[in-house]
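Researcher: Quick test of sequence recovery. Tokens follow.
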């Protein structure tokens, strides 16, 4: 398994989905992330403010 370059669906920036992250997501049964770290953090903060 190699690192993957993904594109954020919110801001359009490319980000790296590392081999370690891929293994973690697979182990937990999660799908690949669709947002970069910054957009995920902003979205989480926005949800917590409501």
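Model:
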């Amino acid at each position: 398994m190699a690192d993957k370059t993904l594109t954020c669906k919110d801001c359009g920036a490319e980000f790296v989905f590392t081999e370690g992250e891929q293994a973690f997501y697979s182990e937990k049964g999660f799908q690949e992330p669709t947002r970069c770290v910054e957009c995920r953090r902003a979205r989480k903060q926005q949800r917590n403010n409501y």
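The radius of gyration is 12 Å.
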